Amino acid sequence: MFCVRSGLTHESHARDVEQVYLRCAEGSLEWLYPTGAVIVNLRPNLPSADGHLRACVKPRPDSRGATLYVERAGELRLLLTEEDQAVGRVRCFGLQEGALFVEASARRDISRRITAFQYQLISTQTPGEETYSHT
């Protein structure tokens, strides 16, 4: 099953933090005109426990306007900068490390920006846990 979350366009305050829950083992997220932040909770409908899963995040080549972190108990650990996304860098983290925190960059211009990435959950109990299949 492939999940797609698109059109996150909350317009009110630039400091708002929205939460989304994605329950698929792989999917994508697209955030138009990013402002504030989004916490992406990866909660797959899989029999294996979260402690045995890694999430790999692959930014779309045109992804702009946000920085990705891993968040746990209010602490942020940098995962992907805008520059990392521009060169297509893929990063992975264990689900037990926390949720994906996507923070919009402060911008004064009104140019069109889209933050978009694919994710895939990989069991750490199988060989090749660091690989990312292109979906």
From TrEMBL:
Provide the alphabetized UniProt keywords: Disulfide bond, Hormone, Secreted, Signal
Subcellular location field: Secreted
Q: Where are the transmembrane segments?
A: none
Indicate whether Signal appears among the record's keywords.
yes
Q: GO cellular component terms?
A: extracellular region
Please give the InterPro entries that the UniProt record associates with this protein: Meteorin-like
MF GO annotations? hormone activity
Superkingdom field:
Eukaryota
Which family is this protein grouped under? Belongs to the meteorin family.
State the name under which the record lists this protein: Meteorin-like protein
